[in-house]
Specification:
Blueprint lengths: L8 E2 L10 E3 L19 E4 L2 H10 L4 E3 L15 E4 L7 E3 L4 E4 L5 H10 L2 E2 L11 H6 L16 E7 L5 E5 L7 H4 L8 E8 L1 E2 L2 E11 H12 L4 E6 L5 E11 L11 E2 L2 E3 L22 E3 H4 L8 E2 L5 E8 L3 H9 L2 H4 L3 E9 L14 E8 L3 H15 L5 E2 L9 H6 L4 H11 L8 H6 L4
Parallel strand pairs: 3-5, 4-5
Antiparallel strand pairs: 1-19, 2-3, 6-7, 7-11, 8-12, 9-10, 9-11, 13-15, 13-17, 13-18, 14-15, 14-21, 16-17, 20-22, 20-23, 21-22
């Protein structure tokens, strides 16, 4: 089987209906990757907060869909699904407070140009700019950088419609006791109707890529390599004791002379053309490299704005380990290269700064995330994941909430010291489990 791209890019999908409506899809509704068919074809769409409230009050059980980029059943429901499209409502920018407030369903690729036009930026972006703000934050989706928290750390306030249909407003300033538990909430507290993000002055990034960095250099200079830029990504297929590509996204000051690139980076050779994370594939849709400076939102993602990824045939898994254990964890996976390699497209290794969000995989620990993009071979991958998880067990890994894992629920729950507090918070928002599904009942609420 030939390697395929992380994403196939197509033109932007048509907008969802703006009125409150219920509809069935002519074919089975799936996630982007096509590996998940949702368990119901009952999907309703709402376009205002009152419509959300009315919908919630009428339902006994449902889940809310975002941009469907999760690879497991965290957003699935056997009863009813809800989509939210507040596209008729413009984001609210507050320059004095340095915040922007957006409705549900809004994507990072939509708000980034708005911020830039006013001289502002977000501190971090994921590798794809096409995901929704709310969905990314409630699953602790991350981005990269030793000094950068995940996307959820930018959240300063939330509005959530709880199980009773009431609007609950929370902020870090006004609700410091429970706010850290409400941000990464996995959809268990209700339907998010507004997210307020902290913003900062705009900045530029210059991106360069180095090829074929030896594992021996990684062993000797792990910290220097991971902290060599504002954001660093290491791509490897675990073959030949080599990091295939090192993507360095460095801050660029237009007032300073352009930095002449070093021809080598810890043994890796400077690339002379744009590359795709999978080197054999076209870099046409990848963000600009070769050191050309650009706007923060044109460089921090790996893939360009202006396109919506279609359902690519791939699977994804990701495990967060403490940064202090990064090298040992990477070497533990490298030992499995003969088993992993045949089913892998590429692995990406990134850093994320510690935070205080209760269900964040980076709660109270700086982390390295080891991400796997697999070929669409679930029978084989499902057998590999327990082996990888077993090798990583000494480092107490935490899987990404929206990706594939096989970790036993008790083991997963033991990784989160604030889980009892989150369960109590969820009970206050949703006494009877209106927002529960099999994924949450198994991994979060099971005793």
């Amino acid at each position: 089987m030939k390697k395929r791209t992380f994403i196939k890019l197509c033109t932007a999908a048509a907008a969802m209906p703006l009125e409150v409506s219920a509809f069935a899809f002519p074919e089975k509704l799936t996630n982007w990757a096509g590996n998940i068919e949702y368990s119901t074809d009952k999907v309703s769409s709402v376009d205002s907060v009152p419509a959300v409230q009315e919908f919630v009050r009428k339902q006994a059980n449902f889940r809310t869909l975002g941009t469907r980029h999760c690879f497991n059943r965290i957003a699935d429901s056997t009863q009813q699904l809800l989509t939210t499209d507040f596209s008729s409502q413009s984001p609210m920018l507050d320059p004095a407070a340095r915040t922007i407030s957006v409705g549900p369903g809004v994507r990072y690729g939509t708000i980034a140009p708005i911020l830039e036009s006013k001289g502002f930026a977000l501190h971090n972006l994921a590798s794809l700019p096409h995901i929704s703000v709310a969905g990314a934050c409630i699953t602790a989706t991350h981005g990269s950088g030793v000094t950068n928290g995940n996307l959820a750390t930018a959240v300063s306030a939330l509005e959530i419609v709880n199980a009773a249909g009431d609007i609950v407003a929370l902020s870090r300033k006004e609700n410091p006791d429970i706010f850290p538990g409400a941000v990464v909430n996995l959809g268990a507290l209700g339907v998010i109707t507004k997210v307020t993000l902290n913003i900062q002055p705009t900045f530029q990034i210059a991106q360069r890529v180095y090829e074929n960095l030896p594992f021996s250099s990684l062993k000797q200079h792990m910290d220097e390599i991971l902290s060599a830029a504002y954001s660093v990504s290491l791509f490897t297929d675990w073959r030949n004791q080599t990091i295939n590509e090192v993507w360095l996204k460095k801050l660029f000051d237009p007032k300073e002379p352009a930095e002449k690139p070093a021809p080598y980076f810890y043994g890796g050779r400077l690339a002379t053309k744009n590359l795709h994370p999978i080197a054999e594939l076209s870099a046409e849709n990848c963000t600009e490299q070769i050191g050309r400076p650009g706007r923060w939102y044109d460089r921090l993602p790996h893939f360009k704005m202006g396109f919506t990824p279609s359902a690519g045939k791939e699977l994804q898994s990701e495990y967060f380990v403490p940064r202090k254990n990064a090298l040992d964890a990477i070497l533990a996976v490298e030992k499995l290269h003969e088993k992993v390699g045949p089913h892998l497209m590429i692995t990406e290794i990134r850093t994320i700064k510690a935070d205080d969000l209760w269900l964040s995989p980076t709660y109270k620990q700086d982390c390295v995330a080891i991400h796997f993009t697999w070929k669409p071979e679930w029978p084989e991958v499902s057998k590999l994941l327990p082996i990888i998880e077993r090798e990583l067990t000494p480092f107490k890994p935490r899987p990404h909430w929206g990706k594939l894992f096989t970790m036993p629920p008790k083991e997963l729950q033991s990784r989160y010291e604030k889980l009892p507090d989150f369960l109590a918070l969820a009970k206050k928002f949703d006494l009877n489990g209106k927002f529960h599904n099999e994924f949450l009942d198994t991994n979060i609420f099971a005793k």
